[in-house]
Amino acid sequence: MTDNIEKAMEAKGITLPTPAAPVASYVPAVEVGGLLHISGQVSMADGKLITGRLGDNMTLEQGQEAAKACALMICAQIKAAAGSLDRVDRIVKLGVFVNSTPDYTDHPKVANGCSDMMEVIFGGAGQHARAAVGVAALPLGVAVEVDAIVSLKTA
């Protein structure tokens, strides 16, 4: 399998992080019936958690960067599970969870950090269905967590 998508990412200055190990009793990815289900990936950059709460101590832009970091970790998990990002047929759905105050309402704008990165990486195949919801807290105090369903090309 070639790595054309990764070469295109490198040309854009985008690099994948090392896939994060699970922090509890689950696996990072499960493939069933041509769909790859990626467990929730928390906001992390340069090996450090991106923590905070939207509407409190984080700006919209910081939230978008946290969501973008989740997109890159999802791609790292896809590569680890599927062997190559070139196996991606389509990003089917993202579930975006935003650590936010009760009155915060820009969850979709925060989620765009992840959604936009998927389109940058996969083009039209990166367009997806999505849910973006606010939550009172996330694991380890992170700002954003995103899970994904990915359709894989058959070999």
UniProtKB/TrEMBL annotation:
<dbReference type="InterPro" id="IPR035959">
    <property type="entry name" value="RutC-like_sf"/>
</dbReference>
<feature type="domain" description="Endoribonuclease L-PSP/chorismate mutase-like">
    <location>
        <begin position="9"/>
        <end position="141"/>
    </location>
</feature>
<dbReference type="InterPro" id="IPR013813">
    <property type="entry name" value="Endoribo_LPSP/chorism_mut-like"/>
</dbReference>
<protein>
    <submittedName>
        <fullName>RidA family protein</fullName>
    </submittedName>
</protein>
<dbReference type="Pfam" id="PF14588">
    <property type="entry name" value="YjgF_endoribonc"/>
</dbReference>
